[in-house]
Amino acid sequence: MASATAEEIPALITQVGKTPADIQWDAVSAENWIEYDKPVSWTDTNGAAQTCVAKRVMWWVGPQAALVRTQLVGQLGLNAAGFWTIGGDDPAMWPLLRTYATQLAPAATAVAIIVTPRVTFNTSSPVAVSVTSQGAPVSGVDATLQFQAGGKGAWVPAATAPLAADGSANFAPTFTAAGKWRVFVPAGVARGEQASDPVPVEVASLVKANAKKRTVKAKSKIAVRVVSLPAQAGQRIVVQVQRGASWLRVAKGVTNQSGVALLPFIGPMTKGSYVYRATADSMGTFSFGVSEPFSVQVK
Q: For a tag site, which of 14, 76, 78, 94 has the least CB within 10 Å?
């Protein structure tokens, strides 16, 4: 028998009266083989016709043999495998090779998150995640929200949530420190693990302010009590009054160890309702914070 391509082998097996069930596997050479009978006719030197049945053995590299050779990539740390007979290959080998290739290099997982870049201390804010692989949603696994304090060091699990059928999950962490956030998704069948790109989140001081008296006389003292959290002694506090679209400073001071500052100032000369607020300067890892506006009635 002349040489044949792997693509032609199934037809040759049928021609010699054999079926796929007759195919043998040699573990040493990692090749397939089959034995078949071949009638042989010839004329001897006396001119007499002769016949016999010859035992023939056909060896070839079938789909399983192709897989075994390709597995050397993983076993030996090779970069790739190549075949000389592309175009004459047995199509049955490709599903085997694709499955193995997926095990070596699983499909990528894409993890995207949406986080508010600036939040207020000790408040919750939504973190939304969307997970896909090869364009399809990933579901049925738990996504883990992770936090890295100060944007350095180890990632600490903060919460877990199952991915819905559309590949989404939602978290609502309470922000108590500045740092980076990400969502980690473990590997699945034929899919690699992946973490989203880290997103830095700035945490502003939580500022609460109010006048000790909400109604005062004109040109009298107004005392504003300000609390800035987390408590940091020496944090600069400013009280402002609203003038149109602008805010003008009327008093300043610093917090004590409890994060409290009491700022007195002389109120307006003119009767009316005035709107104030307090601000806390950035300090340590906490950024500039602003209180809710509050009003004082001058009579």
A: 76
Q: How many CB atoms lie within 10 A of CB 37?
A: 12
Do 216 and 198 reside in the same domain of the chain? no
Give the range of the structural domain holding residue 64, as residue numbers without chain letter: 6-104
Element (H, E) at 217: none
Q: What sign results for the dihedral spanned by CA atoms 26, 32, 34, 40?
A: negative
Contacts of 47 (CB under 8 A, 6+ apart): none
Q: How many domains does the chain have?
A: 3
pLDDT tens-digit readout, 224-242: 999 999 999 999 999 999 9
Which DSSP category does 20 fall into? Answer: G
Pairing of strands 118-120, 199-204: parallel
**pLDDT surpassing 70 at residue 85:** no
- How many Cα neighbours within 13 Å face the side chain of 213? 15
Backbone dihedral angles phi then psi of residue 127, each to the nearest 5 degrees: -125, 115
Q: Is 1 contained in some domain?
A: no
